[in-house]
Design brief:
Length: 43
């Protein structure tokens, strides 16, 4: 159960990083805007 939870968290983290990189490259979002969004999503 714990391993499953850790895997889910790791997958979500990887997805978030990928979205940040793709979002910055595709939409030209500034690093500050991306960092603000990530900070709001973190627990």
């Amino acid at each position: 159960e714990l391993l499953r939870l850790l895997r889910a968290v790791a997958t979500l983290y990887k997805d978030k990083v990928t979205v940040r990189v793709l979002g910055t490259r595709s939409y030209g979002a500034s690093a500050a805007d991306t960092r603000t969004v990530d900070a709001e999503k973190l627990p």
